[in-house]
Amino acid sequence: MVDILGQSSRLGILRLLLNFLEDAAAPSTALQIIARRRDLPFIRLLLGRVGRAPTETICKNLRKLDSITWLTENRAVLDTLSEPDQQAVVCLAVRSGMNRLEVFEVLKHVLQFGRVGARQDAAAALPDFGGADADQLALQGLDDPDPNVQALMARQLRGRRIPGAIARLIQFLDSPHPVIRDAARDSLQEFNFQRYLDSFELMDEDIRCSTGKLVLRVDPEALDRLADELKAPSRTRRLRALEMANTMRVVDRIESLVIELLGDEDHFIRAEAAETLQSCNSTLARQALRGAMSDRSVAVREAAELALQSLAAGPAAPTGTSPITPPLSGGLHEPTLPTTLPPMPEAGV
Predict the structure, then answer these.
(1) Is residue 76 packed enough to be buried (19+ CB in 10 Å), middle (13-18) or exposed (0-12)?
(2) Given a cut of 60, is residue 227 above it in pLDDT?
(3) CA atoms of 167 and 49, how far apart (whole Å)
(4) Which of 226, 227, 303, 232 is nearest to 262 (CA)?
(5) What is the pLDDT of residue 329?
(6) pLDDT digit string (tens) for 150-184?
């Protein structure tokens, strides 16, 4: 019987043997035969039975397979398989009881030579493997022709503490593929507006500027949240929001809100709004500043006059010059910004 199950090519025999995978009390001899057979017809039937989402019973029996001959001795057979079969290979290897180094080698082969769907599944399984070789494989996957593989690898960069991870993720924010942009944003999620707001007073000017630019690219709600701050009842919050708008270089994008603040009841707010508008060289801003020249407050009138003079002289020099990303042609480098925002203060302003 063992000889028949291990050598027969008859379809009925092959199916009978594979039925043991679905037997909760499968004899160990049958499972050993499954692990040793290396003929291609059997391999394809095995992979079809395993698929990408095997049953609990199949998974339990796969864990008993501590060696699968054709996966360890003839890995080139993978290249002859269809995409669904290669995907099943990934599932089979990961769920088996094989040595983890051998499983990693299977994933490595699939990532380097496999079909698209199989590479995606292998990339999704890679986070369970650490070490320099796995890190290098993740970096290589960033250049995979499939955007989904790139995105899966991008999500692993920071967890692996790979040097240059933030710089590479910032590059991915400009990807033409939404799945890659989403992966980059998710991996940089601590660069959100709320943390930036809470940490703003703790950062020096250069870090405020570079981090603010990054927050705008990572947090899609950043501008809306800044607008909320400009409308806040607290005078301190409105003043800080005006400073943030200038630091983040978005005055032109919230011009109407800044102009509204020229009519604020607090003359400090009006003066700050006038000063902020020197970053917005538009007809509407100039008209608003000319109107502020007749403000009842001397400070507001002076701020409006200086803003108009600045606009007439040309673009204002930036107050922070740190770039978000340095040139990357010579390899990956960290950008000029903190890897995380400074700790949030215990009590917000």
Answers:
(1) exposed
(2) yes
(3) 43
(4) 303
(5) 30
(6) 999 999 999 999 999 999 999 999 999 999 999 99
156 Cα distance to chain centroid: 8
The type of residue at 341 is: L
- How many whole angstroms from its chain centre is CA 200? 24
Start-to-end Cα distance in the chain: 79
Instruction: Say yes or no: domain 193-313 is CATH 1.10.260.30.
Output: no
Amino acid at 125: A
**Percentage of the chain with pLDDT > 70?**
90
Nearest to 246 by CA among 295, 195, 212: 212
- Please answer whether residues 46 and 77 qualify as being in contact, where contact means their C-beta atoms are separated by less than 8 angstroms: no
Domains of the chain, by residue range, sit at: 2-129, 138-188, 193-313
**pLDDT single digits (tens) 267-298:** 999 999 999 999 998 999 999 999 999 999 99
